[in-house]
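Re: [ENG-882] Designed sequences occasionally contain unexpected residues at chain ends

Forwarding the minimal case from QA. Structure tokens:
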């Protein structure tokens, strides 16, 4: 082929290559952003239920999003410390917070001087699980059933009425007060900084009883080191089918569920929220993760970001009267 004809043949190809190069350059910033790690912040120590749930979902999100996922534990102040920190971060879709009912629902009802506003500073991304609460005894109490515990409690209430919870202002804190109200004994709350030190005290006999999430009590109950007497659901937990509910034992007003879910700093674009929600929902609905959650005592629960927002609004209405009746304020 003559040089002139060869040049004319190459012109369309060169033009096409130039156009493709322009498209690639235009898309480069988006690709760079996708290469940034997704940070999942956990406001509780490593090894607890919130941390384990975050790591299980994080492993799935690495596959779903084709993105590096980093779990960061920032424990303190019953989970409120991480909320204070997260609200200051950029709303770029690269940060999620694993939040539970303590920081999403209870803290706004009890603390008048919170540094964060749950509605102003955060946006719901996806619910991941419900969890039941439960009452457990250790070597410090002789009771093996709820009936025996209540009889022991009433025999010497001033001596036997203390119960531990993982934090001041937590759902277990208020659930313990609710138990006391329903059985007719004023309970004495003993707060700990997390479920791990609480469990050490319960197993060691320093406290006779504790109220915590069923998930955080499950392992030691199975090991025979503590005894879970009753749980807060309307049905028995799959994780501990041997444990009755308060409802089936005749205490229909001792009932309530907590939540786990993901929040993001307010201002994250809607399309990004939808993308993250879809990935989280798909992860939670996977058969192996469901099985792991159930073994932990978590009940998998997903839905849209809007549905999660409605659940949180309903929870505020459910727990508001309980908190108010307790007279407790965090500050």
């Amino acid at each position: 082929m003559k040089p002139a004809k060869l040049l004319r043949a190459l012109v369309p190809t060169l033009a096409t290559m130039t156009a493709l190069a322009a498209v690639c350059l235009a898309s480069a910033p988006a690709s760079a952003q996708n290469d940034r790690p997704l940070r999942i912040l956990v406001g509780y120590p490593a090894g607890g239920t919130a941390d384990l749930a975050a790591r299980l979902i994080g492993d799935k999100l690495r596959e779903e999003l084709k993105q590096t996922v980093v779990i960061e534990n920032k424990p303190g102040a019953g989970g409120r410390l991480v909320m204070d920190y997260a609200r200051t971060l950029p709303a770029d879709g690269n940060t999620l917070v694993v939040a539970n009912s303590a920081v999403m629902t209870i803290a706004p009802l009890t603390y008048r001087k919170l540094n964060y506003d749950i509605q102003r500073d955060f946006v719901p991304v996806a619910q991941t699980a419900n969890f039941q609460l439960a009452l457990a005894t250790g070597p410090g109490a002789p009771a093996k059933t709820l009936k025996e515990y209540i009889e022991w409690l009433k025999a010497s209430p001033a001596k036997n009425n203390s119960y531990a919870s993982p934090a001041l202002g937590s759902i277990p804190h208020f659930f313990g007060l609710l138990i006391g109200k329903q059985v007719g004994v004023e309970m004495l709350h003993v707060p700990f900084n997390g479920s791990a030190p609480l469990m050490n005290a319960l197993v060691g006999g320093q406290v006779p009883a504790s109220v915590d999430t069923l998930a955080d009590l499950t392992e030691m109950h199975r090991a025979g080191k503590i005894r879970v007497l009753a749980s807060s659901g309307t049905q028995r937990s799959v994780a501990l089918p041997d444990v009755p509910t308060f409802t089936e034992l005749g205490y229909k007003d001792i009932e309530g569920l907590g939540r786990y879910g993901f929040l993001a700093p307010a201002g994250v674009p809607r399309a990004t929220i939808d993308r993250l929600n879809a990935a989280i929902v798909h992860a939670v609905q996977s058969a192996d993760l469901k099985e792991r959650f159930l073994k932990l005592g978590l009940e998998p629960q997903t839905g849209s970001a809007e549905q999660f927002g409605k659940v949180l609004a309903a929870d505020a209405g459910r727990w508001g009267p309980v908190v108010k009746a307790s007279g407790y304020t965090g500050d």
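QA comment: On inspection the terminal residues look reasonable. The beta strands are 38-42, 69-73, 95-100, 122-137, 162-165, 188-191, 209-213, 227-231, 257-265, 298-300. Proposing we downgrade this to a documentation issue.
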